[in-house]
UniProtKB/TrEMBL annotation:
The keyword Transport applies. Residues 30-77 are annotated as: Disordered. Belongs to the glutaredoxin family. Keywords: Electron transport, Transport. It comes from Haloarcula rubra. This is Thioredoxin domain-containing protein. The lineage of its organism: Archaea, Methanobacteriati, Methanobacteriota, Stenosarchaea group, Halobacteria. Residues 108-272 form the Thioredoxin-like fold domain. InterPro entries: TAT_signal, Thioredoxin-like_fold, Thioredoxin-like_sf.
């Protein structure tokens, strides 16, 4: 496991934008240690349409904090600016497991592929809105495979892609726990309307709005879970353990039978994983 970076290095990596790589959203720990993969390029950026789109990249300030931390105020940007529109894709009619499952899962087949992602990652968003629906249509709705989503809240002892990432993870787990029939609708609503990851948009108020838009039965429970740092702690920790075992420091990643693929970098390899699982 890579050594945890100093807070100054951690913030410097954020300021340089190195938490975003061509192949996905990388742990800042991995970026600081120089093994995070490719450096960002203009062609590697994923368009994210929302109120925060045109804001410049954060820069490092003299006191060691990022400019985004110092300047992100309600006057300049607020979650109230986030508009919530109906997603262009739908996953709401997928079959759910018959048995209770700790993590969001679609399908009730024996073979399960696991998608590691982040609610705040634009590359996870790209995968969810472009490749994922067709894979679901072909392999999950047919009953051949199941898919589980694991949101990565921390890596290397730090929140993954912002201090609000754990709140977003807890909110998602709360939707699954309290109203699993609405989870995949919530899932698409969040990713379709995802603000840029540099903003701390994963706040209880906005997460509750997403839950309301997706017709989650009791959005107040989602707000409560997002605000409670102890909520779903064991599930979050287990995801980190499993991510370690699969050496996952960048998302999205798909895992099946010990093999890890990067769907936004090599879509064909991910498709082959689904085909292999369906053939079992």
């Amino acid at each position: 496991m890579p050594e945890r970076p100093s807070r100054r290095k951690f913030l410097a990596a954020l300021a340089a934008g190195s938490a975003i790589t061509v192949s996905g959203c990388a742990s800042v720990v991995e970026s600081v240690n120089g093994s995070g993969g490719e450096t960002p390029t203009e062609s590697g950026e994923v368009p994210v349409s929302n109120a925060s789109q045109s804001t410049p990249e954060p820069t490092q300030t003299a006191n060691g904090t990022s400019a985004a931390e110092e300047t992100e105020t309600e006057e300049q940007w607020s979650i109230d600016e986030v508009t919530i529109s109906e997603p262009s894709v739908s996953l709401s009619s997928v079959t759910l497991p018959e048995d209770d499952v700790a993590y969001p899962t679609m399908g009730d087949a024996d073979e399960t592929l696991t998608v590691y992602g982040s609610w705040k990652c634009p590359y996870t968003r790209e995968f969810v809105l472009t490749q994922f629906p067709s894979l679901v249509d072909e392999f999950v709705r047919s009953g051949d495979v199941s898919v589980q989503f694991r949101s990565v809240a921390y890596r290397g002892g730090e929140p993954f892609l912002g201090v609000d990432a754990p709140r977003s993870t807890r909110a998602g787990l709360a939707v699954w726990e309290t109203d699993p029939e609405s989870f995949w609708e919530y899932f698409t609503y969040v990713f379709a309307n995802q603000p840029q990851e540099r903003y701390r948009w994963g706040k209880p108020a906005l997460l509750t709005r997403f839950a309301g838009a997706a017709d989650v039965s009791d959005p107040s429970e989602i707000r409560q879970a997002a605000s409670d740092e102890s909520a779903y702690e064991s599930r979050i920790e287990q995801t980190l353990t499993d991510a370690d075992e699969n050496d996952i420091w960048t998302v999205p990643r798909v895992v099946y039978d010990g093999e890890v693929t990067a769907p936004t970098l090599d879509a064909e390899s991910t498709r082959e994983q689904f085909e292999a699982a369906a053939d079992e």
